[in-house]
Each structure stands twice: as C-alpha cells, then as structure tokens.
C-alpha cells in the first residue's frame, strides 16, 4: 500500500530527495478540517510529511510496519492516528488501510477482551439509528465517507454509547456550524465521531440520569470504558479507590491497565 499527502506536488519542490526541511503552509492554522482531527492525528501528520520527503513525488511506499518503526510507534497507534487523516482526505492510499496484525497478549488481557465482547453483545447497533444520523448530520461540500462513519458509530454503540446521544450531538453540531453548512468546513462524520468535541458528549451517556453516587465498581467500570473519571464517583480521584477493587478491574492508581 502507498500513502501520499494531499496536494504534495503543489507545495513541496526539491531538487534532491531527503531534504533537511520541508515547507509547512501557514494556512494549516486556519484549516477547519485539520483542527477537528484528534490530537494524535494532528501530531502524526507532520511526521508523515517529513517521511514523504524521502520518496519520489512524496508517495510513501514502505509497509505500515516499516512506517511504524521509523516513527517509533506501535502499528496499532499508527493505525488509530492515520485513519482520521485518510478519512478526512489529508492522505490518499492506494488501497484501504488494513487493520494491524494482533500480537500475542497476556492471558489476563485476553480474558478482559472476551468479557468486553460478551458485554457488548447486549448492544446491537440499529441501522435505523445510523440512517437517522445521516439525515440530521449537517450538509457539507464533498464526500461524507459514510462507511467509515458507520464503523465508528457501531463501535461507539457497542461500548455502551447511546445512539440517541450521537444523534442529538449531530443536531447540536448543525446548530453550532449553521453558517458553514454546505461548505468544506463541516467535518466528515467519521472525523467528527473521533474528535475531542464529541468525547465529552459520548462520556455523558454513561452518567446516571439522577445525580446519585456511583458504586466503586460502577465508577471503575465506567473509567475503563471512557478513560474519564465520573463526577458521581465515590471519590474525586481514581487513585483513592481501594487497592483490591483497582486490582479487580485491572487498573493501577494512575489509571493505567495492569499488564
């Protein structure tokens, strides 16, 4: 698979390959689509541009494993950060981005993954909900990449995010960007679902309807799902959780998972 930056030939002109520097256009600061990308994707982009300068016409022909090695990233982290860049059109691939190969993992993590799969079976993403999202999502100039958006939508629902929360957030986005409807400044659906702006709304779907305190088990389970500590938890900080309950949920006091 090859990977080519958008508009590379328009901005990068070199006599020889592997230049000491590349051109970074100031207009990137005002690029709404770029600003909506996840932080990891925005950090990855200039690293890929630097790597592209080593190749003829800026087309990276190395395998994703080689790219991950050059950038000192795991294949999984590279895939997660690269997907939004491709979905938003900042990079073009010669073929669909393949999922990274899974490496062997400790038995405890295997058990945790099986448990999460079993829990997720109760959540069945509805095609009707996704069709509703497509209807209420603000109109934009250019394509929507609905297939990528549907994969992200289904993944969110399977982890417990209420589809109604996603739909309500799309309606709110429409109101917020009312003046930009019909332009390229409306984010692509998949990029929006991956954005920081959407995370807070997704997390809110895990909060109880009434401001009752969560149990330690509920608070720790929610933290594992969302990476956010609930304001309804028994204490103000994860580190205050009883050691035996942290161990039960496979967590360290600083929020990392027990390896």
Average pLDDT metric? 81
> Uncertain regions: pLDDT < 50 for 5+ in a row?
none
Helix content: 40-55%
> What structural class is derived from the secondary structure elements?
mainly alpha
Strands of the widest sheet, in order across it, are 1-2
* Beta-strand percent range: under 5%
Please describe what this structure looks like.
- The chain is an all-alpha fold and 259 residues long.
- It folds into two domains: 3-93, no CATH class; 107-204, no CATH class.
- The protein is built from 13 helices and two strands.
- Strands 1-2 form a two-stranded antiparallel sheet.
- Helix 7 (127-136) runs parallel beside helix 9 (163-176).
- The longest helix has 14 residues, at 39-52.
Task: Based on the model shown, name its key terms.
259 residues, mainly alpha, 2 domains, two-stranded antiparallel sheet, 2% strand
Give a brief rundown of this model.
It contains 13 helices and two strands. By secondary structure, the chain is an all-alpha fold.
Q: SSE layout and pairings?
A:
Elements: E1 3-5, H1 8-11, H2 32-35, H3 39-52, H4 64-70, H5 75-87, E2 91-93, H6 107-120, H7 127-136, H8 146-158, H9 163-176, H10 189-194, H11 196-204, H12 216-226, H13 243-248
Antiparallel strand pairs: 1-2
Helix pairs in contact: 3-5, 4-5, 7-9
């Amino acid at each position: 698979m090859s990977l080519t930056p958008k508009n590379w030939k328009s901005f990068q002109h070199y006599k020889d390959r592997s230049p000491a520097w590349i051109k970074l256009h100031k207009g990137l600061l005002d690029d709404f689509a770029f600003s909506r990308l996840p932080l990891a994707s925005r950090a990855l982009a200039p690293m890929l541009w630097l790597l592209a300068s080593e190749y003829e016409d800026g087309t990276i022909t190395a395998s994703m494993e080689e790219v991950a090695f050059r950038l000192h990233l795991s294949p999984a982290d590279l895939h997660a950060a690269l997907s939004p860049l491709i979905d938003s059109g900042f990079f073009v691939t010669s073929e669909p981005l393949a999922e990274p190969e899974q490496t062997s993992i400790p038995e405890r993590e295997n058990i945790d993954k099986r448990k999460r799969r079993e829990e997720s079976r109760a959540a069945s993403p509805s095609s009707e909900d996704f069709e509703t999202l497509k209807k209420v999502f603000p109109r934009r100039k250019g394509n929507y990449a609905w297939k990528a958006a549907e994969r992200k939508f289904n993944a969110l629902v399977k982890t417990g995010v209420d589809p109604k929360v996603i739909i309500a957030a799309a309606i709110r986005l429409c109101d917020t960007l009312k003046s930009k409807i019909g332009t390229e400044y409306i984010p692509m659906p998949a990029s929006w679902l991956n954005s920081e702006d959407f995370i807070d709304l997704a997390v809110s779907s895990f909060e109880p309807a009434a401001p009752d305190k969560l149990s330690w088990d509920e608070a720790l389970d929610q933290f594992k799902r969302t990476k956010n500590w609930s304001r309804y938890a028994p204490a103000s900080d994860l580190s205050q959780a009883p050691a035996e309950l942290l161990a039960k949920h496979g967590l360290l006091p600083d929020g990392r998972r027990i390896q």
